């Protein structure tokens, strides 16, 4: 047995109790706390107690945040509630972490990239969207909306409204009410009900750049009525005046709202001289030739329009000719969508002839327009001469084998078009294959040109000199 020196010596309880009675575990009381995290050994720092008090009373004394040190501000912003009123946090808190918590707590899907990567902007825009989409004219108290607008003015750049509710009208009472209401719904002759007025909204949003509206009701179910989907004449006039007055608006979308020729003419007459509009989307409406002529006048004017979307309307040959005439004089429009209209060969040929003179159009969609071989013949000349066009959609048009061959002959002379949609055109497998090979060749040429451009723009890199030995070891040769 070795000596006890160098070993841990544990004194007996009796010996230790004589020197220190509190050290005897047999005489100590066991404390069981109700809070499992409570510990007698740890006492919170005074700083932590003060920060906890600030967090608990932040709503009543929020201005103290600016007087705190940066590290203390971060701790407070991490712990304050995400359900605080906007009047407290709107102009005080800029921390993205806090607004991210607010968005995550309120919405399941949060794609912040759609809002420029800014969580605060996302919260204010989605919050304002929900208020407007559930606003019932003549019923909802506007006080909450006005208060929110005042707080949101500096942070909202996009307003995207997917439904607008009409005023609530009392149903007429009578013995034959059911029969009369059914007949009226089928005919669509209910009295007009004006929707939300955007005049006051656009006036207080100076940074607004994007406005997208749909006059209709989502998920109405068994409560369907035609008046829920009416875009009235007064709605049109108020909206046109509001958009015309907002000079910084860049994108305006009004789709799925039953906009007919008369309403689009009113709308265009007000925004004819708009200085900042670069995108106009009137897709999925009832626009015919008269409305297309008004749009052509807008394109032909001193507008800065870059994108024009007229998909799924009722534009025929006359309307297409008006738009084509405007394209021959326009030098700004780069993207044109005329899909799902009724152009026919006459309208399709007019649009194609305009591209022989137009030098700015990059993408055009002419799908589902009842076009055939005559249009393909003109289009073959376009692809041979036009060096600006990059993408063409001709899907769901019966171009036929002859039309496919003509397009193939034209594409053999083309070096710029990289995308051409020929699905359901019946132009023949051989022509489709040859055209796809040409498109692939153009795509590779574009990729190589882009790489060379990036290399030219890149700053020159310094060449690193290879290290050289200052002295070389030479073995000494000794002679015997």
Automatic annotation (TrEMBL):
One of its GO terms (cellular component) is cytoskeleton. Residues 1-20, 168-189, 457-480 are annotated as: Disordered. InterPro entries: DRC5, Leu-rich_rpt, LRR_dom_sf. Residues 177-189 have a biased composition (Acidic residues). It is found in: Cytoplasm, Cytoskeleton. Keywords: Cytoplasm, Cytoskeleton. Its main location: cytoplasm. It holds the Pfam family LRR_6. Residues 471-480 have a biased composition (Basic residues). This is T-complex-associated testis-expressed protein 1. It comes from Lottia gigantea (Giant owl limpet). The lineage of its organism: Eukaryota, Metazoa, Spiralia, Lophotrochozoa, Mollusca.
């Amino acid at each position: 047995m070795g000596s006890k020196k160098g070993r841990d010596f544990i004194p007996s309880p009796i010996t230790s109790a004589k020197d220190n009675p509190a050290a005897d575990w047999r005489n100590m009381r066991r404390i069981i706390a109700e809070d499992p995290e409570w510990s007698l050994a740890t006492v919170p720092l005074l700083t932590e107690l003060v920060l906890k008090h600030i967090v608990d009373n932040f709503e009543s004394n929020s201005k103290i945040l600016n007087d705190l040190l940066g590290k203390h501000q971060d701790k407070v912003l991490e712990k304050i509630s995400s359900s605080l009123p906007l009047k407290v946090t709107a102009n005080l808190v800029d921390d993205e972490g806090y607004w991210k918590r607010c968005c995550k707590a309120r919405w399941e899907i949060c794609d912040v990239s759609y809002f420029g990567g800014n969580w605060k902007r996302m919260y204010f825009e989605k919050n304002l969207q929900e208020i407007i989409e559930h606003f019932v004219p003549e019923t909802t108290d506007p006080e909450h909306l006005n208060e929110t607008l005042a707080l949101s003015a500096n942070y909202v750049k996009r307003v995207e409204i997917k439904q607008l509710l009409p005023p609530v009208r009392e149903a007429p009472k009578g013995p034959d009410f059911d029969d009369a209401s059914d007949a009226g719904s089928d005919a669509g002759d209910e009295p007009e009900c004006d929707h939300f007025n955007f005049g006051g909204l656009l006036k207080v949003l100076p940074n607004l750049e994007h406005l997208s509206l749909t006059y209709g009701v989502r998920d109405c179910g068994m409560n369907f009525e035609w008046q829920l989907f009416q875009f009235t004449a007064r709605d049109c006039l108020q909206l046109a005046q509001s958009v015309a007055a907002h000079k910084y608006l860049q994108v305006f979308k009004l789709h799925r709202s039953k906009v007919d020729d008369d309403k689009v003419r009113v709308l265009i007459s007000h925004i004819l001289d708009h200085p900042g509009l670069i995108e106009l989307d009137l897709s999925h409406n009832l626009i015919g030739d008269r409305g297309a002529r008004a749009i052509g006048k807008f394109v032909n004017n001193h507008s800065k329009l870059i994108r024009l979307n007229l998909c799924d309307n009722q534009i025929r040959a006359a309307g297409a000719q008006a738009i084509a005439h405007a394209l021959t004089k326009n030098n700004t429009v780069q993207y044109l969508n005329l899909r799902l209209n009724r152009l026919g060969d006459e309208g399709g040929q007019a649009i194609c002839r305009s591209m022989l003179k137009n030098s700015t159009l990059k993408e055009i969609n002419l799908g589902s327009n009842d076009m055939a071989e005559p249009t393909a013949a003109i289009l073959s000349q376009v692809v041979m001469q036009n060096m600006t066009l990059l993408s063409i959609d001709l899907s769901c048009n019966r171009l036929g084998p002859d039309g496919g061959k003509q397009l193939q002959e034209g594409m053999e002379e083309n070096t710029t078009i990289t995308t051409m949609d020929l699905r359901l055109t019946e132009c023949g497998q051989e022509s489709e294959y040859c055209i796809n090979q040409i498109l692939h060749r153009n795509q590779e040429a574009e990729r190589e040109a882009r790489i060379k451009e990036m290399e030219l723009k890149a700053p020159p890199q310094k060449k690193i000199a290879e290290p050289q030995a200052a002295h070389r070891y030479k073995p000494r040769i000794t002679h015997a």
